[in-house]
Design brief:
three-stranded mixed β-sheet, globular, about 20% helix, L-arginine/glycine Amidinotransferase, Chain A, 5 helices, single chain, alpha/beta
């Protein structure tokens, strides 16, 4: 079965980590409705949604992607680079451990799942303020010989998946200038429309892609590539420096 681990929006969501240069207030009620719609779409596409309860002590807890890296039937529970987020992993570990072979990352390693881009058997991992060299080594040790870990230098991006994402097994989409596209030379590389690049995030699920409703040019690009697109409003989620991959850990068991 296909599962999606998600976590509800806490009352404290407006206190999440926001951009210092644009700390816009978040409409928590609207964020909840957007999150609910996200879960509804996942369910409609055949994913079994596991909804973990929110925790008001952890404003960023809806962003479950950062707490775990899944490869096959194994999961690495991360150690987030933002100290305020480290307790988020407890719930993820408790739930994912029922389904997958679980390993925990230890100090001094830090790594957030948003920095890990899986393309086939290659794990590209961004070296960022949230993911350090010890975290990259821990990921490589966990991945073993079955997967190749490729560190990626970034400029100005919060996470690797902020500016690069996988459309399918042979295609990546670059939506920012903070990474060298040549790193992905084994793949077909698509460039996101410039006017939408700064607000683009997307979640591919087979031949269907969830993407922001205010990215119509990107939707047309994906449709030309043979994908069906599902638009969704994520205005309040985006204020938290987050996107559509951030809100779930997808796995099969």
């Amino acid at each position: 079965m296909q599962y999606a681990l998600v976590r509800g929006i806490p009352d404290s969501f407006d206190q999440c980590i926001k951009p210092k240069d644009n700390p816009r207030p978040i409409d928590v009620a609207l964020a909840r409705r957007q999150h609910q719609r996200y879960c509804e779409i996942l369910s409609q596409l055949g994913w079994t949604v596991i909804l973990a309860p929110p925790d008001d002590r952890l404003p960023d807890c809806p962003f479950t992607e950062d707490t775990a890296v899944v490869a096959g039937k194994r999961v690495l529970i991360t150690r987030p680079g933002a100290a305020s987020r480290r307790d988020e992993v407890k719930v993820s570990a408790e739930i994912l451990g029922h389904f997958l072979d679980l390993t925990r990352m230890a100090s001094p390693a830090t790594l957030e799942g948003g920095d890990v881009l899986q393309v086939g058997n290659t794990l590209f991992v961004g070296r960022t303020k949230r993911t350090n060299d010890a975290g990259i080594k821990a990921l490589s040790d966990w991945a073993g010989a079955s997967r190749t870990v490729v560190p990626v230098a970034l400029t100005g991006a919060l996470h690797l998946k902020t500016i690069v994402n996988v459309l399918d097994a042979g295609t990546v989409v670059v939506s920012g200038d903070g990474v060298d596209p040549g790193i992905f030379s084994a793949c077909k590389v698509l460039k996101a429309p410039e006017a939408e690049a700064s607000r683009l995030s997307f979640l591919p699920l087979g031949r269907q892609v969830i993407l922001p409703a205010d990215c119509p040019e990107t939707a047309r690009l994906f449709e030309r590539e043979g994908f069906a697109t599902i638009p969704i409003d994520i205005s309040e989620i985006r204020k938290a420096q987050a996107g559509l991959t951030c809100m779930s850990v997808l796995f099969e068991a």
